[in-house]
């Protein structure tokens, strides 16, 4: 098995210690950090995501892998930044104003990170103005809005309106949360909807490609 | 009133014995310490009553929509109480669980309380219906991150709504409190039992004491009842995550058992029941305290799914539907439909009880056995298991030790039932029993040691140790800005 395969396996199995030894060894042997990301880390998390989607593993097991990937990223990220390599997509995510539910939103953020997105998590109870401010600060390709309360769904509409009203027409908006539907996404002018964390990566890629 | 601490500063358990130690006595409609209300409900006195809970349809709550908000609640009170009277229910409790803006702006919550009390009074004079109101303000303290647990505008507004609702005549005061949840969500998604124990039995217990001493004080001042709390944000979050196959059901079952230690503190501080409907740990608390409890099961599918649809009714004193929106269904408005469902469920249970203890026991057996073998979360709440879990709790003298002891007991019950073929545990889950047991084996002897260890591990940005009477570790820098509206989640960066 190649060292890249070893790294992939270590991430899939959530072996943080192994990751910590394999990554420096790979770097020492001249491996390209971009290759490590694209051929080991992201594919590993995609295997993990698939297993989770198929109910083969639980969230705690998925998060062990996510932490293993994070361990690798801690080492290679500075090198990537120095070389001017940017993640494919930058995303903001937050739970809308008035809403404190964040377990689902956090899972979506984890999945996006696993897919190699650079994710800025704005937390919960995020006002429309705070979303706009963060867009101006971070210039993301994608903004994710989460709402779990029927009473905070209007805040999603307000947020989309504020984002568009501030002239950010290019940034894609993906929404989700238990009471949210594709129909609602269309109605409020969001670009897309994902029903769960496992499909949030594909849904994001789809709208980013459109 | 402050409850005592041990010399080691551990919080002492108030209950050393069980109020109900015989599983055949842990039955619906009857509790050793029943509670009478103004209009003559005798909760736990032999009859099970419906407890209806309702909420608004999808809508904004803002000044312009307030007339519509109030119209909904007026309609709910009028129509549901009329249906209750038509069905000749022996009595009913309405629960007003506020939506966050109604506690943030207590004048809104109070107006709804008055509308519902008015509806109750009118139904009493029109139909002679016996009814009472439970008021459940939101615990909005976590709107600030990290939460301000003992001061600030959310704390003040919550107390104001409790105080004014009680003064207006809301007879039962409850809350779904959140103390300890700052670390618990991560503990759940990481499957980390040690962190669960810290959140529930160290942080949760401390916050419950602080909070419930206030609620009991308010109830006392106005001659109403401090009813009880629920570990909803803990045990039910675990249950929903398990239902979606995100965490193992056996793990959620153990979390449920441990959550009883936290909810118990309300009663240690002077709450008298009925415990809040979504506290599925309530049968354990009924066994310990003897106070009546509200429960919810199949009739709360309108709000969330659960694996205990029938079993939950076996030990209930009030039978609830958790929450339903005021929307039109084919039969009637949804709360009216749910009033009817609850009324018929209670009618059946009361009839069985009227026919004698054997008939009641038979109905309970069916309720329990139709659920218990299919899901560990149901099995753990079967009456005989609740008694064992309750015993494990009261056998210890600190909440910390009780948490470990009840977790161990829960694992033991699950393992044994699985081995004996009385419970189906999926293969993927079975290994978690060993994993959890190993974690318990590694728990330190004393709570102080545990606190010292955990305070080195936990994310101090997520909560304010002083709000939990917890020591800040030497050298740790805690710069809290207590911002409203930002707290990035960190599922992927837990410390274990
Ligand atoms: C950006 O793109 C995307 C894409 C996909 C996205 C996405 C974004 N966001 C989510 N997704 C999707 O992917 C995720 C992963 O697969 C999924 O996320 P979910 O969040 O759906 O799934 C999670 C993995 C697991 N699910 C959850 O975590 C939510 C479960 C339930 C039980 C729930 C929980 C746990 C909680 N709650 Co609350 N809570 C309920 C929920 C019941 C339910 N049926 O959903 C619900 C949503 N809560 C409700 C209520 C009423 C409340 N809650 C409240 C509080 C809480 C807790 C704090 C106790 C806890 C939250 C813990 C936390 N940190 O998030 C209060 C409100 C607080 C607030 N201001 O937000 C309070 C008002 C209760 C009260 N009286 O205090 C109800 C809403 C009713 C309504 N009218 O809308 C509710 C349906 C429960 C009920 N049956 O009554 C997908 O939706």
Plain-language structure description:
The complex is a heterodimer of chains A (about 210) and B (about 500). Chain A has helices spanning about 5-10, 15-30, 35-55, 60-80, 105-115, 130-140, 155-165, 180-190, 195-210; strands spanning about 90-95, 120, 140-145, 170-175, 190-195. In chain A, helix 2 runs parallel beside helix 4. The model of chain A has no long low-confidence stretch (mean pLDDT about 95). By secondary structure, chain A is of the alpha/beta class. Helix content of chain A is about 60%, strand content about 10%. Chain A has 9 helices and 5 strands. Chain A has a 5-stranded parallel β-sheet with strand order 2-1-3-4-5, sandwiched between helices. With about 500 residues, chain B is α/β, with parallel strands linked by helices. Chain B has one domain (about 20-495). Chain B is globular. Residues about 485-495 of chain B have low confidence and may be disordered. The chains are: A alpha/beta (about 210), B alpha/beta (about 500). The interface of A and B includes residues 56, 124 and 153 of A. Bound molecules: CO-5-methoxybenzimidazolylcobamide (B1M). CO-5-methoxybenzimidazolylcobamide (B1M) sits at the interface of chains A and B.
Key terms:
heterodimer; A: 210 residues; Methyltransferase, Methionine Synthase (B12-binding Domains), Chain A, domain 1; Rossmann fold; 5-stranded parallel sheet; B: alpha/beta; 7-stranded parallel sheet; two-stranded antiparallel sheet
Largest sheet of chain B: 7 strands, parallel
Give the domain tally of chain B.
1
Order of helices and strands of chain A: HHHHEHEHEHEHEH
Q: Measured on Cα atoms, how large is the radius of gyration of chain A?
A: 18 Å
Poorly predicted runs of 5 or more residues of chain B: 487-496
Proper CATH architecture of the largest domain in chain A: 3-Layer(aba) Sandwich
What is the spatial order of strands in the main beta sheet of chain A?
2-1-3-4-5
Instruction: Output the number of helix runs of chain A.
Output: 9
């Amino acid at each position: 098995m190649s060292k890249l395969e070893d790294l992939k396996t270590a991430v899939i199995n959530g072996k943080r210690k192994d990751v910590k030894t394999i990554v420096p060894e790979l770097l020492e042997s001249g491996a390209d950090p971009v290759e490590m990301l694209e051929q080991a880390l992201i594919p590993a998390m995609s295997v993990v995501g698939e297993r989770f989607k198929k109910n083969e593993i639980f969230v705690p097991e998925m998060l062990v892998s996510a932490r293993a990937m994070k361990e690798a990223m801690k080492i290679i990220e500075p090198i990537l930044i120095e070389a001017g390599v940017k993640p494919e997509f930058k995303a903001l995510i937050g739970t809308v104003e008035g809403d404190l539910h964040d377990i689902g939103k956090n899972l979506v953020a984890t999945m996006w990170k696993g897919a190699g997105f650079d994710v800025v998590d704005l937390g919960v109870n995020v006002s429309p103005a705070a979303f706009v401010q963060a867009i101006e600060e971070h210039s993301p390709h994608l903004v994710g809005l989460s709402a779990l309360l029927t009473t905070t769904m209007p805040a999603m509409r307000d947020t989309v309106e504020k984002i568009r009203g501030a002239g950010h027409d290019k940034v894609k908006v993906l929404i989700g949360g238990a009471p949210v539907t594709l129909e609602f996404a269309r109605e409020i002018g969001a670009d897309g909807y994902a029903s769960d964390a496992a499909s949030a990566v594909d849904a994001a890629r789809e709208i980013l490609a459109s | 009133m402050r409850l005592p601490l041990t010399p080691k500063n551990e919080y002492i358990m108030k209950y050393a014995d069980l109020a109900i130690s015989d599983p055949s006595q842990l039955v619906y409609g009857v509790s050793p310490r029943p509670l009478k209300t103004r209009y003559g409900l005798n909760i736990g006195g032999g009859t099970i009553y419906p407890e209806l809970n309702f909420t608004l349809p999808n809508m904004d709550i803002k000044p312009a929509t307030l007339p519509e908000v109030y119209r909904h609640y007026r309609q709910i009170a009028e129509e549901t109480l009329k249906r209750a009277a038509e069905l000749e229910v022996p009595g009913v409790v309405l629960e007003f669980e506020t939506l966050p803006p109604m506690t943030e702006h207590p004048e809104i919550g109070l107006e709804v309380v008055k509308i519902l009390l008015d509806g109750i009074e009118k139904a009493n004079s029109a139909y002679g219906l016996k009814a009472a109101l439970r008021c459940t303000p939101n615990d909005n303290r976590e709107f600030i991150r990290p939460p301000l647990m003992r001061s600030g505008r959310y704390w003040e507004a919550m107390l104001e709504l409790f105080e004014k609702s009680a003064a207006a005549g809301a007879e039962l005061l409850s809350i779904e409190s959140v103390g300890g949840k700052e670390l618990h969500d991560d503990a759940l998604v990481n499957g980390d039992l040690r962190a669960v124990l810290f959140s529930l039995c160290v942080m949760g217990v401390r916050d419950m004491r602080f909070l419930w001493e206030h609620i009991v004080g308010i109830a006392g001042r106005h001659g109403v009842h401090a009813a009880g709390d629920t570990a909803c944000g803990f045990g039910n979050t675990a249950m929903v995550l398990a239902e979606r196959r995100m965490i193992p059901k056996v793990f959620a079952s153990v979390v449920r058992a441990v959550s009883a230690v936290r909810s118990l503190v309300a009663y240690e501080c002077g709450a008298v029941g009925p415990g809040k409907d979504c506290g599925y740990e309530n049968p354990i608390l009924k066994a310990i305290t003897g106070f009546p409890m509200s429960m919810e099961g199949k009739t709360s599918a309108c709000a969330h799914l659960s694996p205990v649809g029938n079993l939950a009714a076996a030990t209930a004193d009030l039978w609830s539907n958790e929450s339903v929106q005021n929307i039109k269904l084919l039969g009637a408005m949804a709360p009216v439909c749910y009033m009817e469902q609850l009324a018929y469920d209670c009618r059946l249970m009361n009839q069985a009880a009227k026919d004698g203890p054997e008939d009641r026991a038979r109905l309970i057996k069916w309720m329990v056995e139709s659920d218990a073998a299919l899901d560990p979360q149901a099995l753990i709440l079967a009456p005989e298991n609740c008694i064992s879990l309750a015993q494990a709790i009261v056998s210890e003298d600190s909440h910390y030790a009780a948490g470990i002891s009840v977790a161990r007991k829960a694992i033991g019950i699950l393992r044994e039932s699985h081995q004996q073929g009385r419970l189906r545990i999926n293969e993927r889950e079975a290994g978690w029993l060993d994993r959890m047991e190993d974690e318990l084996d590694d728990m330190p002897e004393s709570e102080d040691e545990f606190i010292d260890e955990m305070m080195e591990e936990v994310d101090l940005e997520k909560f304010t140790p002083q709000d939990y009477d917890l020591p800040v570790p030497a050298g740790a820098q805690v710069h809290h800005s207590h911002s409203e509206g930002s707290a990035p989640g960190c599922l992927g960066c837990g410390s274990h």
